[in-house]
């Protein structure tokens, strides 16, 4: 009968199917990306083994200990844990002790007053006026969890606690990736600043030569001014790079939870860095490695239990209460047994009958939240899959791009010496020298930028696969 009174709702289930691999065709699958049979994933590697730079590892360790946002999340985990304890206590009996005393004076022309006026107790002692009251005892109340309403509420809070743990793990992967990306950006800026210094020396030497040629009537003042302008432009770039270095250092200091200070690093080894061999594993393994997917799944389980809790509110609830103690109007009689002994035992069954709108509204809201949780889970899985697919492709294309840019830098570096030699022998115009130097500087910058993108892509694919939190 009670089941028939519960509104019927359509429950939505999550689609947990993912493609067999991260590509539409095996023909486009890079060698490092993993195949359908490759179940190994680089996400299972601890970050201390994945990153080999000791300076970077030290920054990550400090960040995991001091980052304020991460520590805030740890307190949220504690809050969720306390919620589990509170829910567990709701389906256990409440037992307490109480003691008290009071005094009461009844009006004479009332029922109680008339009784006191005419009542004489043993030993001809008059009824006390006013009447004291002393009591001491224990009491207990217990809601019998017939429909598992309270147990399901406790299980839902457990899933939310576990969800908060996965939220912390996801933040750990994000923090590690952010520190690593900022660190590699700092190394790239250092190398770009060094390239600028080298280019300033090259351009200064060219300026000195063109001034000598002007004295020998082999060059004009226009050539001298153009070379001086190019030197000034290149020198101005170094201050922009220096500002970026300061801001990047301070961003890293913020991530590791400390005030601005120099960042220890080995910038000279940046150009020699080679991206690691990445194994993506099969997409279904991503469901076990990515904390945000596991968090969404736990939230979904909690939402499903919330529906059961809301549904149980339509059914009757059984409550039991009991008390045992002593009560007397005189303290000397308080502990006399059985005269001053009192006890009680009662049970009650209550069920909603009329005007159940609030319960229906909660039930409908719980169902809507469960549907939201399903869509959130499916969206999280889809987003994770696309992230990995994009980053796998990016690593492959950046590797090809870096080789071509490196070849361009090598050719333009040689062309600087060639153009300078031709200019000294009056076989090349000064504009050819300027443009060659400018192209060489831009290509070297692009090479460093491509190397930084390679390292960032490596960090991002590691994060996208769910690595770093283990």
Automatic annotation (TrEMBL):
It is found in: Cell membrane. The keyword Membrane applies. It holds the Pfam family OEP. It is a lipid-anchor. It comes from Mesonia mobilis. Gene3D superfamilies: Outer membrane efflux proteins (OEP) (2.20.200.10). The keyword Transmembrane applies. Its main location: membrane. Keywords: Lipoprotein, Membrane, Palmitate, Transmembrane, Transmembrane beta strand. Belongs to the outer membrane factor (OMF) (TC 1.B.17) family. InterPro entries: MdtP/NodT-like, OMP_efflux. It comes from the Bacteria. This is RND transporter.
